[in-house]
UniProtKB/TrEMBL annotation:
Mg(2+) binds at D135, I136, E137. InterPro entries: 4-PPantetheinyl_Trfase_dom, 4-PPantetheinyl_Trfase_dom_sf, Enbac_synth_compD-like. SUPFAM superfamilies: 4'-phosphopantetheinyl transferase. This is 4'-phosphopantetheinyl transferase superfamily protein. Gene3D superfamilies: 4'-phosphopantetheinyl transferase domain (3.90.470.20). The keyword Cell division does not apply. It comes from Eiseniibacteriota bacterium. The lineage of its organism: Bacteria, Candidatus Eiseniibacteriota. Residues 131-209 form the 4'-phosphopantetheinyl transferase domain. Keywords: Magnesium, Metal-binding, Transferase. One of its GO terms (molecular function) is magnesium ion binding. CoA binds at R68, R76, S117, H118, D135, E178, K182. Its cofactor is Mg(2+). One of its GO terms (biological process) is enterobactin biosynthetic process. It comes from the Bacteria.
Length: 243
């Protein structure tokens, strides 16, 4: 008997510290917000197309095959809830569009960076004041040679000390690299080996672009999390990484 997925919403927020002086008692401002949601949780909170989608989005949703509708809707729900954590407004007034290059955006809010990812009935959305990329991927059996395809020899030596291995390790590294490449709006237009993991722990990594990749920022912090049977990664630029 198949078990129904447990309703789950995961939310992350990061606040930027602001230096205080004697004349100011400003509180830290929200720097980024990330929401991860599955279909069961969306139903629990009443995240229906009528409540969360604009007229144009509703038309897009209705044109999709039935099997894709829940995941697509969850992506919009996650991104809009993340945006409302970062900013203010009414959810029905928000519409998800796309910039040149395919990066998602909230229409009318060009100053906010956005990212969406879907996998196996789960979706994640992120909004930030700085460039951001997210990726979520289910852990599933994959061909062993795929690890050699997406990593360099130096990376394979680096990850030997981690406790994760096999399909978990492959999925962890894939989501970390994909989050960075999505933040740069290139996806697999850049080979995964050109975004190299140069430092890694169980839940954090640093990813650096190869010297011949003409993109900035070049160094990225990545936070990784195991959620149910998925790995979820969030990438933001390292401090002073505009070079």
């Amino acid at each position: 008997m198949l078990r129904r997925p447990r309703p789950m919403i995961v939310r992350y927020t990061m606040r930027k510290r602001i230096a205080r002086d004697r004349s100011s008692r400003r509180l830290p401002t929200l720097q980024e917000a990330v929401v991860v949601i599955n279909g069961a949780a969306a139903r629990r909170i009443g995240a229906t197309p009528e409540r969360y989608l604009s007229c144009h989005e509703w038309s897009q949703w209705a044109s999709l095959p039935a099997a894709r509708r829940t995941e697509w809707l969850c992506g919009r729900v996650a991104l809009k809830r993340a945006f409302l954590d970062l900013c203010h407004g009414a959810v029905r007034d928000l519409e998800v569009g796309y910039r040149a290059g395919g990066r998602p955006m909230i229409a009318g809010h060009d100053d906010v960076y956005c990212s969406i990812s879907h996998s196996g009935g789960w979706s994640t959305g992120a909004t930030s004041r700085i460039p951001i990329g997210v990726d979520i991927e289910a852990v599933r059996p994959r061909r062993a040679e795929l690890l050699r395809y997406i990593t360099t020899e130096r990376e394979r030596r680096l990850v030997r000390r981690l406790t994760v291995a096999g399909d978990d390790l492959l999925t962890l590294l894939w989501t970390a690299k994909e989050a960075v490449l999505k933040a740069l709006s290139v996806g697999l237009g850049v080979h995964p080996c050109r975004a190299e993991v140069t430092a890694i722990e169980e839940r954090a990594a640093v990813v650096e672009l190869a010297a011949d990749v003409p993109l900035c920022p070049r160094r990225w912090n990545v936070r990784m999390e195991r959620i149910a049977r998925f790995y979820h990664s969030v990438a933001t630029p390292c401090a002073a990484s505009g070079e």
